[in-house]
Design a protein that fits this description.
Largest sheet: 8 strands, mixed
Number of domains: 3
Function: Catalyzes the dehydration of 6-phospho-D-gluconate to 2-dehydro-3-deoxy-6-phospho-D-gluconate.
Pathway: Carbohydrate metabolism; Entner-Doudoroff pathway
Strand order of the largest sheet: 9-10-14-13-12-11-15-16
Cofactor: [4Fe-4S] cluster
Family: Belongs to the IlvD/Edd family.
Number of strands: 16
EC number: 4.2.1.12
């Protein structure tokens, strides 16, 4: 089915805006393919270095220039639950590659830090910039130029976007993203959120809080709430960069292992020398970008992708703007309620029909492009299928045609909300984004006096002292990429939620981030220009009345800022590695352009 006029219009606008940069990018891909592929271009000394440590069988096979050689780029570490399962993947991939007449080499590792570990800690100020480090580390891994394709092993917040940006720099190679899958369900999300709120009020102690957190995050795999990590996996399906149905299969299961092996075989089959060349730079085009945005809105995904989608698109020569996200959000209904937009976790979402159901519905409604190239072949319809094992054989069958639980997943014809819930705000305070899908309708529009803070710690102190027990819009500034790397401020959710539960009208305005874990408090985030870059937030004072209205798309202040002196920016933090990232803070672009240094 052709897409609706609204989706077609946004796609055409992106394509026209990107015409010159996209053409230059595609020309670069074509030039790269013209040189001898893979290791065939290496001199004898180059070749000997590249395969010196390989097993004898792989070295013999590598003598054949027509045998594909696959790069493995991995974010494995055993500290983070989402990435610990990746430890086993290289052996699975090498075995599958050999069976397909190919070789596979671990080309390089990339860092993977967890925002759940660094929340409220100095290390969070490195988090967003780790995306750029991951992209560069991916480029270092692939720059040996001995490969015919790449398997990208990563899951969480900045890791998948960083891997994507790095892979797109080698856009002539096929790249298949290989996830780990979610951990099994633990403590229900509603119960976890309640304990967090009680702790913020001082009604339970650290022992009770730790017990609740450990019951929630309890095993290998991705955290089960619908934050940025699981939004990444949704995007890889919607943009055709996973094998179909890969996103939410548990780690360390026969089906997951079969999908890992299948990814290696598929990557070997679609390389530059094959008759079915599917390079990542062709998969990732304007229509794929639009499909990704559509998926984000339909499932209520992470606001972090208002940064990452823009930065990833730019790596492929595509100019995606916040206006495009806003326009798509207005025409794509919210089909899923997964925590924090509901009480269910991603395992329950998957059981209710998951991504196969979402893709089928979006295609049938003309809200997603079907005529796209994916790693599975031509057509997004491949992703309306789900994998299963027939004995020991991996195959795919049609996904669910009806939701298994309409409290979690609904068809386009009967959505939870008529739109996707992410709004672009504009006004005297700058441009911002806001996610309203988890915010009650009567809490979305707020006009109240400001309480201004230059750090999240200062807000926490005011909350604990009772200084915020009133209708208030908390302004937390100097949290943008130039100021301190744009940390997530998720630690502010519990105290602000408590204030709202006490009956006060509460909102947050910040040039920082709140992530996919942001919840029920109205939050205007990613304010651009940021306070440290001359933005209006630097001029706001306590008591200034601010109006936040996502339906009108406004972020206004009822005060004249002219003639005021800006608040001095706090000194950038040092220690915990932060001083090493000073060049990134100096070079980084604005949040509405992806907060990228590239």
């Amino acid at each position: 089915m052709p897409v609706t006029a609204a989706i077609a219009e946004v796609t055409a606008r992106i394509a026209e805006r990107s015409r010159e940069t996209r053409a230059a990018y595609l020309a670069r891909i074509d030039d790269a393919r013209q040189s001898d592929p893979g290791r065939a271009k290496l001199s004898c000394a180059n070749w000997a270095h590249a395969f010196a440590a390989s097993p004898v069988g792989d070295r013999v096979r590598a003598m054949d220039p027509n045998a594909p050689n696959l790069a493995i780029v991995s974010a494995y570490n055993d500290m983070l639950s989402a990435h610990q399962p990746l430890e086993r993947y290289p052996d699975l991939i090498r075995a599958a590659a050999r069976a397909a007449g190919a070789t596979a080499q671990f080309a390089g590792g990339v860092p993977a830090m967890c925002d759940g570990v660094t929340q409220g800690r100095p290390g969070m100020e490195l988090s967003l910039f780790s995306r750029e480090v991951i992209a560069m580390a991916t480029a270092v891994a692939l720059t040996h130029d001995a490969f015919d394709g790449a398997l990208m092993l990563g899951v969480c917040d900045k890791i998948v976007p960083g891997l994507a940006i790095g892979a797109l720099a080698f856009g002539h190679l096929p790249a298949i993203f290989v996830p780990a899958g979610p951990m099994t369900s633990g403590l229900p999300n509603k119960q976890k959120a309640k304990v967090r709120a009680l702790y913020a009020e001082g009604k339970v102690g650290r022992d009770e809080l730790l017990a609740a957190e450990q019951a929630s995050y309890h095993g290998p795999g991705t955290c089960t709430f619908y934050g940025t990590a699981n939004s990444n996996q949704m995007l890889m399906e919607m943009m055709g960069l996973h094998l179909p149905g890969s996103a939410f299969i548990h780690p360390n299961t026969p089906l997951r292992d079969a999908l890992v092996g299948a990814a290696a075989r598929r990557c070997a089959a679609i390389g530059p020398r094959s008759n079915d060349w599917i390079p990542v730079g062709h998969v990732y085009d304007e229509k794929a970008v639009v499909n990704g945005v559509v998926g984000l809105m339909a499932t209520g995904g992470s606001t972090n992708h208002c940064l990452h989608l823009v930065a990833m698109a730019a790596a492929a020569g595509i100019h995606l703007a916040l206006e495009d996200l806003d326009a798509i959000s207005k025409v794509v209904p919210l089909m899923a309620r997964v925590y924090p937009n509901g009480s269910a976790d991603v395992n329950q979402f998957h059981a209710a029909g998951g991504m196969a159901f979402v893709v089928r519905e979006l295609l049938a409604a003309g809200l997603a492009h079907d005529d796209v190239l994916t790693v599975a072949g031509r057509g997004l319809g491949h992703y309306a299928k789900e994998p299963f094992l027939d004995g020991e054989t991996l195959t795919w069958r049609d996904g669910a045609t009806e939701s298994g639980d309409t409290d979690i997943l609904r068809p386009v014809s009967d959505p939870f909300e008529p739109d996707g819930g992410i709004r672009l705000l504009d006004g005297a305070l700058g441009r911002a984004v806001m996610k309203i899908s988890a915010v009650a309708a009567d809490q979305q529009q707020i006009t109240a006096p400001a309480a201004v803070f230059d750090s999240q710690d200062a807000l926490m102190e005011a909350f604990k002292s009772g200084g915020l027990d009133r209708d208030v819009i908390a302004v937390v500034r100097f949290q943008g990429p130039k100021a301190n790397g744009m940390p997530e401020l998720h630690n502010l959710s519990p105290p602000l939620s408590v204030l709202q539960d006490r009956g006060y009208r509460v909102a947050l305005v910040t040039d920082g981030r709140m992530s996919g874990a942001s919840g029920k408090v109205a939050s205007a985030i990613h304010v651009t220009p940021e306070a440290a870059d001359g933005g209006a937030l630097a001029y706001v004072r306590d008591g200034d009345v601010i109006r936040l209205d996502p339906h009108a798309g406004v972020l206004e202040i009822q005060a004249d800022l002219k003639g005021r002196e800006p608040a001095p920016a706090p000194s950038a933090g040092s220690g915990y590695g932060r001083e090493l990232f000073a060049p990134f803070r100096a070079l980084v672009g604005a949040a509405d352009r992806g907060a990228s240094v590239f």
